[in-house]
Specification:
The chain is an alpha+beta fold and 522 residues long. The chain is built from 12 helices and 11 strands. The structure holds adenosine-5'-triphosphate. One of its GO terms (cellular component) is nucleus.
């Protein structure tokens, strides 16, 4: 594994960066639509090399070049690893551009700036959303190991990703997985003790400490997201699909138990703890809910989905977990099947088109009803109509395994259909919490159901947090009820922060040192 000395990474840069025109590339098709703008598959005209062009959106004239783009470029330029996407160069377009319909693209600036990346055939969300897609256990292990290896490299090199989710994990047809979208990433240094924003990481993958308002945090935030991805791969659907912050925390507490001074010393001192205190303590249920997972998978998942960030497993330790060293072993990436290109944007688009076609067909049918060629089958009393079966067999994750899960067959079988899983989307594009900016949230989300695609709230642009102390936000327990009336009388323990955290290890290698310092970073 390539591990570079922090601060001395890949510093040699081409003097030509930014000097070439986007005209050196032929755009082939749009493969992504992100916060910055569009992502295209493109071909370099002279060499024929296929790349991904990510256009940097510069709509806001006054703010100039977006800070997120500057950060992403700066960070990607210093990272060089087989499990991290490679930024090849920056290119510019000198004149005004047209969109795919030939209209001016709305950019008030004359030119545009593009990041040129190596091209990847899939993102994990797009790939897992392919009809009939099943991941085998060796395949899941293979992806997880690469994800952890890439993340360990970032953490060792003092970079927090802060937006780990399926659509940011890119996979090529050689089976390689690479971390992408460093737009929310930031460098941290061991000697910096300032505050960081807690409005990062897509809601479903956001750890409890950020939801509770912590502003001092470290690599463990990424490890929570990895735990969510891991469970999602094994379970077949997202495990914590909250619609807003209070609901997200509530889902976490229902699964992982409520935090207290015993399982998480210092938690009661975190900014918004009191706003989200459950009305009665909840028990941890990870083992129960995921009892269909194999023993080693469950062990590792427990350590990833640990409420207390200082106790959460690091990427390095996760790579040493029994899970990766027991049969079936992770497969060789090259042995994985090749799939037709599948990006979240495309699968989402295909579903939309399919829905439109279905609606048109329905409308036509209503306008021109066909005489019945034959009578519908007679339904016996008590017999479920086949078309309704998915309704009656639908189970929430808390009622046991999903309809089709990675069971003994070691296959990942994604539940489908409108009622086949939690609604990954918020079709209205609003959320009941109010006040939460969905800036990142309108374009994401292919998912596991056929519901309307709109990703849950995300944190690229910090919105006013509706659940701030003093705001009238439902407390945990009020959201879904059933948690009793009396609030627990939690003891007041050590303060949350650098002083109170146990020094977990005395290791001297670079990873250990970094891990020990995880609460001292900005
Ligand atoms: N190098 C690449 N190769 C192939 N596809 C890519 C590449 N980079 C990005 N994509 C596709 O474009 C999508 C959006 O890219 P990315 O996440 O980097 O943009 P973004 O503006 O940060 O989006 P978001 O706001 O959703 O995070 C990805 O989910 C992926 O499907």
């Amino acid at each position: 594994m390539a591990v570079a000395v922090p601060g001395e990474l890949n510093l040699l840069e081409s003097p030509n960066w930014g000097s070439r025109s986007v005209d050196c590339f032929e755009k082939l098709e749009q493969i992504g639509e992100g916060t910055y703008g569009q992502v295209y598959m493109a071909k370099e005209i002279t060499t024929g090399e296929v790349v991904a062009l990510k256009k940097i959106r510069m709509d806001n004239e006054r703010e100039g070049f977006p800070i997120t783009a500057i950060r992403e470029i700066k960070i990607l330029k210093k990272l060089n690893h087989e499990n991290v996407i490679q930024l090849k160069e920056i290119v510019t377009s000198p004149g005004p551009e047209k969109d795919e319909h030939g209209n001016p693209d709305g950019n008030k600036f004359k030119g545009s700036i593009y990041m040129v990346f190596e091209y990847m055939d899939h993102d994990l969300t797009g790939l897992s959303d392919r009809p009939g897609m099943r991941f085998t256990v060796p395949q899941i292990k293979c992806y997880m190991r690469q994800l952890l290896t890439g993340l360990h490299y970032c953490h060792v090199n003092q970079v927090l990703h802060r937006d780990i989710k399926g659509s940011n994990l890119l996979i090529d047809n050689e089976g390689n997985l690479k971390l992408a979208d460093f737009g929310l990433a930031r460098s941290f240094s061991s000697d910096h003790n300032g505050n960081l924003t807690n409005r990062v990481i897509t809601l479903w993958y956001r750890p409890p400490e950020l939801l509770l308002g912590a502003t001092k945090y470290g690599p463990s935030v990424d490890m929570w997201s990895v735990g969510c991805i891991f469970a999602e791969l094994l379970h077949g659907k997202p495990i914590l699909p909250g619609k807003n912050e209070p609901e997200q925390l509530n889902k976490i507490y229902e699964l992982c138990g409520s935090p207290d001074e015993i399982n998480w010393p210092g938690v009661t001192k975190i900014a918004w703890y009191n706003n989200f205190k459950p009305s009665r303590p909840l028990k941890r249920r990870v083992r129960d809910v995921f009892k269909h997972f194999d023993r080693h998978a469950l062990e590792l998942l427990e350590r990833m989905l640990t409420l207390n960030p200082s106790q959460r497993i690091s990427a390095k330790d996760a790579l040493d977990a029994e899970y990766f060293w027991n049969d079936p072993l992770p497969c060789d990436p090259k042995s994985l099947p090749k799939y037709e290109s599948s990006h979240e944007f495309q699968t989402k688009k295909k579903r939309q088109q399919q829905r439109q076609q279905e609606e048109t067909a329905k409308r036509q049918k209503l306008q021109h009803p066909q005489p019945h060629a034959r009578l519908p089958p007679i339904q016996q009393p008590g017999q479920i109509h086949p078309q309704h079966r998915s309704v009656s067999t639908h189970q929430s994750i808390y009622n046991g395994p999903p309809q089709a899960v990675a069971g003994p067959s070691h296959h990942y079988n994604k539940p489908r259909g409108l009622l086949g899983g939690p609604n990954r989307y918020n079709p209205q594009g609003t959320n009941s919490n109010g006040g939460y900016n969905q800036n990142r949230g309108t374009q994401g989300g292919a998912g596991y159901g056929n519901g309307g695609p709109s990703y849950p709230p995300q944190g690229r642009v910090p919105p006013p947090y509706a659940a701030m102390p003093g705001n009238n936000v439902p407390r945990i327990g009020d959201v879904t009820n059933g948690f009793g009336i009396s609030a627990p009388n939690y003891s007041q323990g050590a303060p949350y922060g650098p002083v109170s955290l146990p020094n977990r290890n005395q290791g001297t290698n670079i990873t250990d040192v970094n891990r020990n310092q995880q609460y001292g970073w900005k």
